[in-house]
Amino acid sequence: MRGKWEVVRLWVLYCLLLSGFFQGVFSAFNLPRPPWKKQSNFGSSVVFPLVGNVYPKGYYQVTLNVGQPPKPYFLDIDTGSDLTWLQCDAPCVKCIPAPHSPYKPNKNVVKHKDPICASLHSPANHPRHTPDDQCDYEVEYADHCSSLGVLVRDAFPVKFTNGSSIAPPLVFGCGYDQEVPASEHAPYTDGILGLGNGKSSIVSQLSSLGFIRNVVGHCLSGQGGGFLFLGDDVVPSSGIVWSPIVRGSSEKHYSLGPADLLFGGQATGIKGLPIILDSGSTFTYFNSKAYKTLLSSIKKNIDAKQLTDAVNDKSLPVCWKGSKPFKSLKDATMYFKPLTLSFTKAKNIQLQLTPEAYLIYTDKGNVCLGILNGSVVGLGDVNIIGDISMLDKMVIYDNEKQQIGWVPANCNKLPLLS
Ligand SMILES: *[C@@H]1O[C@H](CO)[C@@H](O)[C@H](O)[C@H]1NC(C)=O
Ligand SMILES: *[C@@H]1O[C@H](CO)[C@@H](O)[C@H](O)[C@H]1NC(C)=O
Predict the structure, then answer these.
(1) Catalytic (active site) residue 331
(2) What is the CATH number of the domain that holds 347?
(3) Is the pLDDT of residue 331 over 70?
(4) Pocket, ligand 2, Cβ cutoff 6 A
(5) Fewer CB within 10 Å: N-end or C-end of the chain?
(6) How far apart are CA 390 and CA 413, in angstroms?
(7) How far does residue 373's CA lie from ligand 2's centre (Å)?
(8) pLDDT tens-digit series, residues 276-298
(9) Domain containing 142: what range?
């Protein structure tokens, strides 16, 4: 044992000396930095392949290994919430059908005095807890699904883009009571990967442990699949449109805005929409007024010779059919115009939504509008940009610089790992 430790120590020392030496040489002679030595202190990321699609699956998932020894779980990626949770045998009071058997905790419960617990609770909510009590949690999502359980801490083995593997202990929810409203069909998942900007999110935890910068991003492919990354190592150095994150009423969300809505490059009269980016939402939601305006703009633009209402297609609330069934989404997109969200507080910042970013192609050969009426699901004035409108783009949520960026990208190709 001892011998091995000596070797490791020497090796570390050697590496430190070597990197220090080269750094010295390169800065002393003002030479360009060698490509293997990045400027940032972190310079590493974790990249996960994604599976899923907008339609018919309705989710994008990662496989995450958790525990000692690690076991795999499929988790929906959600930039709209902070806490990661797994269905858990604590025992499980109410679990939904899932791909894997529930996670088994092993006396690794997080206590109330833990700062991550505090970040999820306001003291007023839990006046009767003592610091050594276990930390309970409850999360409820916009679709009224919910998870209730207790916080635990366990190993999350991850491989960094620089080739190193570690298994830091991270805090997550052990969910033993999941509720899904009768109107929803239960998602087939082991849990949710929370990627919000709160203290409890996995990206914030990895960043406060010093492993990565507090940056998360995704590249969702329109053909299905794609990738997720934590850290800023794979972010391209140019071509990204950046927009500041707005702090306001919806403190915990990745909010942008306000934005004006254009249809085919023309003003629609819809101005100042507050926008939230949420990878946990399959579709895009507009408030009732914007939705109504959008729907009438699209309908006015439709040539009745090419497209008619497909009232029998119940895939989504509004569908159209062609004179004969479309062979693909591409077959139909030429009959639709692009949408633009034009952010008013910053010059020239626009999010372009081509027809592919707001239409789905159904098994009946029709197309349906993937922008839905937020009032129907009780979203009020909130406007959510969901997966459908983020396809084939790299979307980067930079919590350090408080900005969100996007750039067209080939999401079928995983960034090169060393
Ligand atoms: C790779 O990155 C991780 C996370 O930042 C870091 O802990 C590790 O020391 C790095 N490994 C090498 C060989 O630089
Ligand atoms: C949007 O939903 C609200 C609430 O259900 C409804 O009152 C309104 O008519 C809907 N708008 C359209 C254009 O369908």
Answers:
(1) no
(2) 2.40.70.10
(3) yes
(4) 288, 291-292, 295, 373, 375-376
(5) N
(6) 16
(7) 7
(8) 999 999 999 999 999 999 999 99
(9) 40-231
